[in-house]
Amino acid sequence: MIKVGIVGGTGYTGVELLRLLANHPSVEVQVITSRSEEGIAVADMFPNLRGHFDLCFTVPDVDRLAECDVVFFATPHGVAMSMAPDLIRRGVRVIDLGADFRIKDVSLWSQWYKLEHTCPDLVEMAVYGLPEVNRQQITDAQLIACPGCYPTATQLGFLPLLEQGLIDHRRLIADCKSGVSGAGRGASVGALLCETSESMKAYAVAGHRHLPEIRQGLSEAAGRPVGLTFVPHLTPMIRGIHSTLYATLKDPKDGLQSLFEERYKDEPFVDVMPEGSHPETRSVKGANTCRISVFRPQNDDTVVVLSVIDNLVKGAAGQAVQNMNIMFGLDEASGLGIVGLMP
């Protein structure tokens, strides 16, 4: 059994990790931490986990976490980089669901996250945990930087086109909508029901923290720096991301459907839908699946890709478990064979 520790077990991604790991056949969760909820039983805070975990939240302790085989950080940025060095020195494998190790340019990271990075050497060794791109590197990694939710949906949608050099890499547009859980579990006026229900709004149009991460991944796929306009929106739903992606084809022609089908034919968690389909966020609710469809409206030179995920699963906890499975040589789908919830 793989001994697992979770730092930050009370946020939405933390409890989602617990939900997924509760039925994982090869995992034993030994430590779940929370400074604010120390001593409280996990099942008392999250009754859906009753009968699955007989653990209480504890204050993070490196010595106790070091007894685990792998530690997940489901924490705000800045937390993982304060503890990961000690754990890695002791041979523990680390999967960070936060942003501490995603961006390779440390000065750029500091610019967007308003913190000085305390362990840039670990940024260099971290593997970006998008299995559809870095599966081989994930196998031998000791530190995984799990991608963000917007970056996951956006990169998976653009990758086949950029890898084949079919689109103008200078003018990419990502128009993305997210459910309110993407803002986290902490109380804030902007996430209140009365503030979000029956309304939709764009935010961070001038610049969102996920922008440099998305650019980094797309630039690697294109083999050159890309130009990207990324506009996120907040929608009145709990879970889900819908990314509508636009690009200009260099040589407009048919074959885009087969291109996507071929690129993702062996990917267990990317579903290229039949031609003409419009994927819905509710079809991936609770599942570690990205559903994609591709269009060329009016047979013109614009390609439109629709990409949907559950931001808490394929956009966070599910992808983290997928990475763990790869790291430990398990069936990649172990513990993740969950069908989306309908309705």
TrEMBL record:
It comes from the Bacteria. Its main location: cytoplasm. CDD domains: AGPR_1_C (cd23934), AGPR_1_N (cd17895). Catalyzes the NADPH-dependent reduction of N-acetyl-5-glutamyl phosphate to yield N-acetyl-L-glutamate 5-semialdehyde. Keywords: Amino-acid biosynthesis, Arginine biosynthesis, Cytoplasm, NADP, Oxidoreductase. It is found in: Cytoplasm. It comes from Neptunomonas concharum. The keyword Oxidoreductase applies. The keyword Ion transport does not apply. It catalyses: N-acetyl-L-glutamate 5-semialdehyde + phosphate + NADP(+) = N-acetyl-L-glutamyl 5-phosphate + NADPH + H(+). Its EC number is 1.2.1.38. This is N-acetyl-gamma-glutamyl-phosphate reductase. The gene is argC. One of its GO terms (molecular function) is N-acetyl-gamma-glutamyl-phosphate reductase activity. One of its GO terms (cellular component) is cytoplasm. Residues 3-141 form the Semialdehyde dehydrogenase NAD-binding domain. The lineage of its organism: Bacteria, Pseudomonadati, Pseudomonadota, Gammaproteobacteria, Oceanospirillales.
